[in-house]
Amino acid sequence: MKEKDTILIAIIGGILLLAGFLLVFFVFRTSPSHPSSSPASSKETAPGITGSQANGGQTSNQPASTRTPQEPRLGTKTVGTPYSGSSFGSGSTGSGPRANDSEVAAKMAALEAVASQHREKVLTDSIAWAEKFIQDPNLATATREVYRQRLIPGLRNGHRALQGRDFAGAMREFEKALEDPHGSPVSKFVCYKYIKYCAAQQRDTEKFLQCAKEQAMLMETQDLSMLGIDKTGDAMIVVEDLAKLLRASKNAQAFQTLVDNRMKNSLDRSPEARDKITASLKKQIAERERIFDEVQKM
């Protein structure tokens, strides 16, 4: 009988122990201060993401007035709009007050003014340095001419434009170089050469012929020996003949005038002779126009 009582007591004790364990479990589960009190609080909420967003957009069944608010953690921002307020919206980096835009603009303007003054001084010193060599009679003529051309901004800028295949811009720069006070017959001849090149690229016949005439005048009146060009008296005649041929290619009346003039100087006035002169002129025109095609391939 005692043995049965012992067994019964043990069973009752086990049941009471299990009931106490279950009671403690449910008490802690329903406590609002426990970290596992809601699905939203069991997950770490990223800054700027609400509890409903962390749960995939599902809201808690717990009333809003009884929910436990998330406390901000050290090293994170307060839950809400990310980078709100002065932390981001004002442009502050957190390392100090933001510089005023007008102050920054004033500092930049002051720096640019200093840099501009420095550039002007360097340019002035460079011009004085080069002019000293230009006026040095002990230097060779070719050497002095090299220093002279370095002083002409239009030549430098024109070369830069040519490298970018900006032929219109290059032409403007070389035309400026023609008016430069440091210019010389040699530098002008070089400028006309480059302008002719730009005109040929643009198939501007009149500009090409204008520069060719200016070069012819320099060849007849100036010393261009340093360029390997001898002074000659028939340069203008050659250019005028070139002009007649190039213009005749675009003007039927001018072409017939050339044929008539050659027929007058011919002993043979037959139709066959006229046909030969016509064919010869067409061939010469094609050869002269090839200048433009060859230049454009360069």
| Quaternary structure annotation | single chain
Per the principal axes of the C-alpha atoms, what is the gross shape?
elongated
Q: What low-confidence regions span 5 or more consecutive residues with pLDDT below 50?
A: 33-69, 71-92
User: Rg from C-alpha positions?
Assistant: 47 Å
Instruction: Tell me how many strands there are.
Output: 0
What's the story with the biggest beta sheet?
none
Query: How many H/I helices?
Result: 11
Content of β-strand: under 5%
Give the terminus-to-terminus CA distance.
125 Å
Helical proportion?
A: 55-70%
What structural category do the secondary elements indicate?
mainly alpha
Order of helices and strands: HHHHHHHHHHH
Mean pLDDT score: 76
